[in-house]
Amino acid sequence: MEFHQLSLGQLQTNCYIVAHNNRALIFDPGEEADRVIHFLTQHNYTPIAILLTHGHFDHIGAVDQLRDYYQIPVSIHQLEANWLSDPHLNSSSIFPLGDVIIKPADQTIELGETEIEDFKFNVIHTPGHSPGGVSFIFDSEATIISGDCLFQSGIGRTDLVGGNQADLYDSIMKLYQLPDHYRVLSGHGPSTTIGYETQTNPFIRA
Question: Domains (ranges, CATH) in the chain?
Fold first, then answer.
């Protein structure tokens, strides 16, 4: 399984393409749909689904273009199902980048062990940055797509709609239960590992 990172848009939000046998999952396509399409075409990947760690505008901006182009479903946690079409909830209304309004998701994300074709991963609820935040854990690859929950030497902000500092702490402690060598692919910035964060994160240590 291959993990590719594309940093998209003015906020440099990390979109992840997870590929296996020329099929691909798209995580958090925040902007620049044309760039994502170019990447997929260049690598001869056929995307089969779009999965969202949460519903903030900088993680969803290219959803409709990619969904329409590839005719693939979009999934988000049910607590944020109405965020895609609401600029207040997805926080685009408070940034000078224009309101982001996306069509409803095709389905809601089920927590627990999940299979989409040959892709197998575990979905856990990691609220705090937003109420419906989730992290995708690929145990076979020792890799986590954490959205804006945990960053290298940082944590998600909790001052936007639905943010909760205590919930974020609990969510990060869930991630800290994973083995030290697990790689963390964050919503912004470089990757890190569970071991590095439990020992050095200045905000929350194990």
Answer: 2-200 (3.60.15.10)
